[in-house]
From TrEMBL:
Listed name of the protein: EamA family transporter
Similarity section: Belongs to the EamA transporter family.
Keyword ATP-binding among UniProt keywords: no
Membrane topology: Multi-pass membrane protein
Domain EamA: 19-150, 162-303
């Protein structure tokens, strides 16, 4: 009689979930930080350019001095690195800002967070891997919770370019998970993150030339949580804690975390961003948003338990 095969728990899965959640909590902190800087006259594109450029310079210097072997790649890795930098670093942020400029922020958030569904569809259609029905149910619950958090019915308007940009941001985000999952299994996350940030920084230099940045506003004060901080300090924190660390943590998590689960965990970002906006910027929370957060977390737990 054949005994059933006992599937062992994937080593590092719990640690990977912790790293992924840390990544998205830190990404969420970038929203209030960037908002405080933009109040002082910085455009979203300018903040993104300084954020990615500073992060790239800092991480490349650290990796070159401390872990130089991480920066060694072969010719066959070119397309992987270009895809990761163009989609996962520059594409997500640029297209999201285009969407925000044309449709309400809540609608843009819902559109970009369609990424987990796109990842699941890719895995099912391209890889031919069947996913449990509870994974799809969890993704649906998470999206429903996100709709409540985003309050999309407040002043909702549809602009074709804005909707297209939001869907493009979702596709780029899906590329971040899929390419990151592939690259993290083959390369050092430090090296891949550093090169990805450099590629993203080059794109941002083309979009926002350095001489157009409002450097004269670096010494102004940004208000966070009722306290004043120099704009340059907030931008530095945004580059390190809001960019370098979360990208590293997210890529490291993808070594032991399936892309669909990582995508659903990313939906924690708008929950944390909403709470931080309440704490740091004084923006209120509605009961529907709290209910949406609970539904989203239930969906994430469902996906986590269902993933093999």
């Amino acid at each position: 009689m054949t005994r059933p095969v006992k599937v062992a728990r994937v080593p590092g899965r719990s640690r990977a979930i912790e790293l992924s959640l840390l990544s998205w909590v830190l990404f969420a902190s970038s929203g209030p930080l960037a908002a405080a800087v933009m109040v002082e006259g910085w455009s979203p594109a300018a903040v993104t350019s300084v954020r990615i450029g500073s992060a790239a310079v800092l991480l490349v210097l650290v990796v070159a001095l401390w872990r130089p072997r991480a920066l060694r790649f072969g010719r066959g890795d070119l397309w992987l690195l270009l895809g990761y930098g163009l989609l996962g670093v520059a594409g997500v942020q640029l297209l999201f800002f285009v969407a925000v400029a044309r449709v309400p922020v809540g609608v843009a958030m819902v559109l970009v967070n369609l990424a987990p569904a796109l990842v699941a569809l890719w895995i099912r259609g391209v890889r031919g891997t069947r996913l449990p029905g509870s994974v799809w149910a969890g993704i649906g619950l998470a999206l429903a919770g996100l709709v409540l958090i985003a309050q999309v019915w407040h002043g909702a308007r549809l602009d074709p370019v804005g909707v297209a940009a939001g869907l493009g941001a979702a596709a780029c985000s899906a590329g971040f998970f899929l390419l990151g999952e592939h690259g993290a299994s083959r390369h050092d996350p430090f090296g891949m993150t550093a090169v990805g940030l450099v590629i993203g920084a080059v794109v941002m230099v083309v979009v926002v030339p350095p001489w157009t940045l409002p450097f004269d506003r670096l010494t102004l004060s940004a208000v966070l949580g009722g306290s004043d901080f120099p704009v340059w300090v907030v931008l530095l924190v945004l580059a390190v804690a809001g960019t370098v660390v979360p990208y590293l943590a997210g890529l490291w998590a993808l070594r032991d975390l399936p892309a669909p689960l990582a995508g659903v965990l990313a939906m924690v970002e708008p929950v944390v961003a909403t709470v931080l906006a309440w704490l740091l910027l004084g923006q209120g929370l509605r009961p529907a948003q709290l209910a949406g957060a609970a539904i989203l977390l239930v969906g994430a737990i469902l996906v986590q338990r269902a993933m093999p």
